[in-house]
Amino acid sequence: MPYRQGVLPALTRVALGVGPRAAASAAADVAGDGEIPAAQAAARYCRGLVAGDPALVLAAAGYYESTGRPLYLAQAQEDAAVLLASLGDRDRALASFAVALRGYRELGAQWDITRAGARLRDHGVAPSGVIQPARPATGWDALTAIEVEIARLIADGRPNPEIAAKLDLPRHAVQTHASHILAKLGARSRAEIGLRRS
After folding, report:
1. Are the C-beta atoms of 85 and 125 separated by less than 8 Å?
2. What does the pLDDT read at residue 28?
3. Fold of the domain spanning 140-195
4. What are the structural domain ranges in the chain?
């Protein structure tokens, strides 16, 4: 499972929400420590969720930041914010939330922004800045930060597998973004993306 380091923290979070704590602990155990830094970060993240320890989750977030994994970084900072809020540490919760919010915005992940804000409010912390101005529906200004990056790579003639590897994204995610880019730019083919480049 090449992507299990990204899946296991989410599995642990879901297990904590719907099942016995043993299921969440099992997911954390599967992450293991090993010698691979990504596995070590995932293990810390999972154990932090199970133990309710934001320091472990933030340690994983530090790894994701240093290795350029924006989605995992935003998710870890969101979970750290929730754990900090549950411990009554409002200021640090808001600081972690701000990092998560910035990451989600760069990825164009509005649903994640809404969910993260709701999770914090459930713990009595009302984050500001969740609402963002409406993005235009068409043209280059309609593209999210990740879509702009992918569009530039497409315009340079890069195929989806190469883009996925360069941006550390699943191939299906790149294909989805490419479809959105074509629609937003009104382009009929990948070649037209380069012609419409601003």
Report:
1. yes
2. 57
3. Arc Repressor Mutant, subunit A (1.10.10)
4. 4-121, 140-195
